[in-house]
Amino acid sequence: AQKVTQAQTEISVVEKEDVTLDCVYETRDTTYYLFWYKQPPSGELVFLIRRNSFDEQNEISGRYSWNFQKSTSSFNFTITASQVVDSAVYFCALSEVTRRALTFGSGTRLQVQP
Amino acid sequence: DAGVTQSPTHLIKTRGQQVTLRCSPKSGHDTVSWYQQALGQGPQFIFQYYEEEERQRGNFPDRFSGHQFPNYSSELNVNALLLGDSALYLCASSLGGTGGDTEAFFGQGTRLTVV
User: Fold this and answer.
1) A3: nearest Cα among A22, A17, A24, A30
2) Each residue's pLDDT tens digit, B22-52
């Protein structure tokens, strides 16, 4: 069965620090998709990135970067030079091609202090 | 371009009552999925509707049911409410009734409190 683990429940950093959010997943499928979502206090889940299992190339988007390693079943998310607006709960999620559902981790609450 | 809209935003119900939550998908999307997010946890998949049919269901009892209308909007119904049904209910829309190969857009959710 599929599973996503986000071991860090809460992280607190000071503005401008770099922070990495960890995500480890389990799946028996060879084709799957990994996601990161941001959930601000308003509640809406904001899509950040989707990767498929055949694309291990790391990605950078502005201050955000993602490191996908199939060998360790990890899909970690780094925010460089964090800002107060980055404060939110971040979820890692997995979707197998045979299923229609997203399986979410329990989330990591990031607090960026000014 | 309107995103995913859900109504109502907040709701308080008594144990044993029934509740209906509503979702309008993003323009152009034909697939609606519902998730339950308990406080401090990640969202849990309830079910997905595509072409007015339930295509897949998560591990939720039959008290949870749904419907999709010809305009692709959807309802989530919960009967015989329990205290444990208190949660944020999120609706996600996507295209083509598929799985993770398409991006899902989420609404802001309905906060249900059962007392």
Assistant:
1) A24
2) 999 999 899 999 999 999 999 999 999 999 9
Nearest one of B60, B52, B39, B45 to B97, comparing CA atoms: B52
User: Nearest CB to A100: which of B35, B90, B99?
Assistant: B99
Q: Around A12, how many Cα atoms within 13 Å sit in the side-chain half-sphere?
A: 2
pLDDT means over runs of 10, chain A (114 residues): 94 97 95 93 90 86 93 96 97 85 95 96
Query: For chain B, how many residues are written?
Result: 115
d(CA B47, CA B62): 11
With the C-alpha atoms ordered B53, B68, B51, A51, is the resulting torsion angle positive or negative? negative
Q: In B, which residues are within 8 Å of A35 by CB distance? A: 100
CA Rg value for chain B: 13
| Phi (first) and psi of residue A26, to 5 degrees | -130, 135
Task: Say if the Cβ atoms of B106 and A45 lie within 8 Å.
Answer: yes
Which of the residues A34, A44, A54, A100 would you substitute to probe the B interface, choosing the one with the greatest number of B C-beta atoms within 10 Å?
A100
